[in-house]
Amino acid sequence: MNVALFIEVDAVKKKFMVTRLELGRREEGVALTDQELARTYGDIVGVYMGHRPLLLVSNPNTIKAIMVKEFSRTPNRPKTFLPRNEMKYSLLNADDDQWRFLRNTLLPTFSSGKMRMMEPLFKAKYEQLLDNLTERAKTGKPIDFKDVFGAYTLDVIASTGFGMDIDSQKNPDNDFVKYTKKFLNISFTPILILILIFPKIDTLLYWLGMSPFNRLEILSFFRRVVKRAVDQRMEDSNKLVDLLQLMLNTHHDTGVDESENIHSFEGDGNPWKTRRLTMDEIVGNSILFLLVGYDTTSNALAFTAYNLATHPDCQEKLIEEIDAILGKEPPNYDNVQKLEYLERVFCETLRLYPSACRTHRLAERDIVIEGYTVPKGTDISFPIYSIHRDPRFWENPTRFDPERFTPENKAKRHPYAYLPFGHGPCSCIGMRLAQVEMRLAIVSILQHYRFKTCEETEIPLKLSKANLLKPENGVKLLLESRS
């Protein structure tokens, strides 16, 4: 390890420990902590997560080098907790050759062609969303859009990933809804904090039934749901077109779509040959799609509604674009691609409120970063929230301004100063699915309503303290009919 870095990290270790305690008393979470660390110590900041060294890197050129040029040295993500059961077969937890196989095999599932094939499922769910909102709007009472969009994204994932047709907003007691909320409800208990500091103790706690990740009942439920759906499809010749069926088809899906290169990675000696996904891999990745697609997309939609309600001029400009290009035509995959201002609104929302405050890579070998030799085993983290609000890259960074994402303005900015879906070979595989969900939902709503603030609207929004960014107290708005 480079002595300079060792002295720098070791010298600030106590300082960071004290800083974390002070920030905790001020109830500042991961996002604001990263901002303060970057402002105070610069683009390379050494901290500790328990006993594990963690490097925060904020320089876009360096981020690009790590994510792309040095990908062979940082191909995997660090794992705070040991993955177990089917989750160890998911794309998020797989490493090296297993990850490459899963990535190459699953990527065609999210191509634009496959999204078009799933249009009937998307249409059914956004129409369901609109029907539910119409009933709520008639009361004239504020609507918590965090809950509403959470129900919508859960319905989409249940439909596309598990073959289940539910209306979670009208049926909150549905088993799928209840088990999903149980699965995602992991709070920072003393035991969880102990595991963060001493990760290996989780193995003992797991077998003693004390670990917050020993969720056998919940995983058994999702396993039964997937296996039941798979068995039904094996017997039924009229197969649905959804993520689950596409995963079942991967062993013979060439899937090359448009300009997408899905079967090779830089540095691979040979093209990857697909095989049939195992049941464990299908179950693990169905659950992964639930984990990464439910809360993140619903949060992004809620933040979008908030930004439009608090910036009525932007909302009117978007409505004018929708009226001019779609009119009353139902939104679909192709026509919403024509809405350029809508794309800017979403991009700016994800700049201000990225789904995750950080994204991570693990140094599998020693790697030189800005003159420092970073040793194998270091967690290299990119503070997305902090970078997205850095005045070096974004003028007046706290202001909501979709015009930042015109082609001219994007060309002036370093592409790696914007990281809502990551970059390089590890970029978010479900990005296109999330974008389709969001576009269809917002367009279908704005064809009939406007978002309006009210006394219950929290301005500014209080953000959660966890790495996953969400509105702590929901997003309460009114819907005003356009008719």
Short description:
With 483 residues, the chain is an alpha+beta fold. It has two domains: 1-73 and 356-399 and 408-419, Uridine Diphospho-n-acetylenolpyruvylglucosamine Reductase, domain 2 (2-Layer Sandwich), CATH 3.30.43; 74-355 and 420-481, Cytochrome P450 (Cytochrome p450). It has 18 helices and nine strands.
Tell me what you see in this structure:
This protein has 18 helices and nine strands. The protein has 483 residues and is an alpha+beta fold. The chain has two domains: 1-73 and 356-399 and 408-419, Uridine Diphospho-n-acetylenolpyruvylglucosamine Reductase, domain 2 (2-Layer Sandwich), CATH 3.30.43.20; 74-355 and 420-481, Orthogonal Bundle (Cytochrome p450). The strands form three sheets. The protein has a four-stranded mixed sheet with strand order 1-2-7-4. A three-stranded antiparallel sheet has the order 3-9-8. The protein has a two-stranded antiparallel ribbon with strand order 5-6. A hairpin with a 2-residue loop joins strand 5 (367-369) and strand 6 (372-374). Helix 6 (119-138) packs antiparallel against helix 7 (145-162), helix 8 crosses helix 11 and helix 14 runs antiparallel to helix 15. Keywords: Endoplasmic reticulum, Heme, Iron, Membrane, Metal-binding, Microsome, Oxidoreductase, Transmembrane, Transmembrane helix. Belongs to the cytochrome P450 family. Pfam families: p450.
